[in-house]
User: Fold these one by one.
Assistant:
Number 1:
Amino acid sequence: MIKFKVPATTANIGPGFDCLGLAFSFYNEYRIEKSDKMLMEGCKPKYNTKDSLFNKAFEATMKVLKKKGSYHAIETPNVPSSRGLGSSANVIVAGCKTANILYGNNKLSDYDIFQIATIIEGHPDNVAPAIFGGLTASVKLNNGKYYCKKYNVSKNLYFSVLIPDFKTSTEMARKLLPKKYSKEDAVSTISHSILIIEALRSGNYELLKTVCKDVIHEPYRKKLIPDYDYIKKTVEKNGDAVLLISGSGPTLLVISNKNNFSKNLYLKNTKANWNIKSLKIKN
Ligand code: HSE
């Protein structure tokens, strides 16, 4: 069987709603081979179906390749699902790669896969880092294609994720958002997200602390995370770290300039159980 892996990702990074993402050195692994009949193993049986995201991505890529055939895949799903760590984008990218490796002789470029996978996912912010790694800024162009620029993230910054013992759905978290935003919110978002890229790329933690404010999604989604206000206050109290919602949540992303930050976290009085994981960026 052929093996490959796809990284866990975090999307938005505060004000970069639906456009910024980061890849972690923490992966779902896939083993694949050609087969006459679709068979997906290693995951929950509900994902061994024609309408799974993996299979939709496989079929969409086969259509682009103009090929017929199926697969036997075994997934090692390390990235928890419905937690804001890009598990949907992960399996979509894996489905595209499976078709490209088994039937396309790797003819499609990462950029081609980025287009196919983003159409299935609906937005590019988790898909881009799952394919290109690092910090990615993505945009939908006037011709309907997606463009992405990748940056390496500074080694001066340390990342942890706080993963709770409950799930939320992206669909529900998107329904909570307003249909329209004010000009002030638009200007705030543009200016903060430009400088977030600079802070992550250069490792300027003081800048990062100043510009990670989001007005587009976090104020509306925090009600889905009962401990959000408490943890944010605790984590940011001494300026030790910044805390953001990872993707649509409920995982929280902690960025610090101290590598032992997670040991100092104070999570004793929380309602949920939180699993702290320190992660390196996959540049
Ligand atoms: N940008 C997306 C959102 C990421 O926040 O809804 C989750 O897929």
Number 2:
Amino acid sequence: MADKLSAVKGMNDILPAGVPRKDKLPDSGLWRWFERTVDDVLSRYGYQYLLTPMVEPTALFVRGIGQATDIVEKEMYSWTDSMNGDALTLRPEITAGIVRAMVEHNALYNGPLRVWSLGPVFRHERPQKGRYRQFFQLDVEALGCAGPDVDAELILMVRSLWQALGLVVGQHVRLELNCLGQPDERAAHRAALVAYFQQHVAQLDDDSQRRLHSNPLRILDTKNPAMQTLVEAAPKLVDHLGPASKAHLDAVCAVLDAAGLPYRINPRLVRGLDYYNLTVFEWVTDHLGSQGTVCGGGRYDGLFEQLGGKPTPAIGFGLGVERLLLLLQELQLPLPSSAPDAYAVVGEGVPLPTVLVALDALRAAGVSVLLHASGREGPGSLKSQFKKADASGARYALVFGADEMAAGQVAVKPLRDASAAQTLQPLAQPQAWAAGLRKP
Ligand code: ATP
Ligand code: MG
């Protein structure tokens, strides 16, 4: 036998429910349900779906995300195209690609556009629970919108998504908010920060000493416990915000207050990417250990220009799909089942064409039916078929026995409700009884 091959470290298979696996990753049924729920909620807010390539020019991310960020410094999968020498990168996030596409196609010609995408992104990180090298992001962007109304609407939309998924705000997830101001305000704050950290340079760890001049704001993002007191006492951006920035934040908060959505203003929330201004936010959970951020985003009014477009205000967020589904599993919330409505059990010598035609009629009437797949020797004993029917999670077994079939009937046997009786139904009129089999 040839050697077995394994998936690349940190890159996962998403498999059907019931396939045993060692990691706790979600099954594909849960995954698809998440996608359907997202589609449903986002379309109610006017967001449209789009797809951009997985591979982009490296320059897009260097210019868009920023040279001194973790992502560009050490997390990108980059290479040189052997045909033409182009510098290429597997996308580490989706926003930069979307902005590139909008500029390239002049997509905002007719005004603002709300879009979303969902797909894999790649980061060369140390794999652990909730942190992978390929993971999926739901990416949502409101493009061409400057006002705080859109910031607030975007955040409220995430709350709707939590509700649709069964997550309770305050109990399972909570909102953290900050205002990063405008570039000039950030420059003043940055100067104050550098001066402060220079005074305490001996207390900075290696990473932070390196960032002191390249990206001092990122020092505030440190996870090093030894530096927390130092960071706590550092100059705050809020003290450098002008009236317009403050008014923007206040307007967002006024909507959240009116909508009864609790939040915490976290002055240390700076986000890992360089392009943000004004509103930034994260949805965090305490139920996933240190990988607690499930969703993060903010406004990036300068990014279009940085990528060669016209000045265009915009705001968006990214949500980690694996982390979110891990959270749903962790909380043991009632999740939708991917079991079929019915399982077809087939008796010895029964004419297969009649069975398969009857099943197709049921499916046309909206019932999901799993056909017992027979081996070379036929369908096997009824007993073993009922075992399979039970294991499938189906609520009914459809028993195609020779006697019933001769009378033009099929027996419908409830599998989950011991008090319900078996019935006989006419094969020729599936519409008459199909509705009774469908999920409530
Ligand atoms: P973190 O601080 O956890 O590294 P981040 O700030 O790098 O997160 P973003 O770039 O904002 O993350 O990506 C959006 C979301 O994608 C995060 O909130 C998180 O849920 C998820 N995410 C980020 N990195 C990973 C990863 N390596 N594996 C799985 N999910 C991830
Ligand atoms: Mg990260």
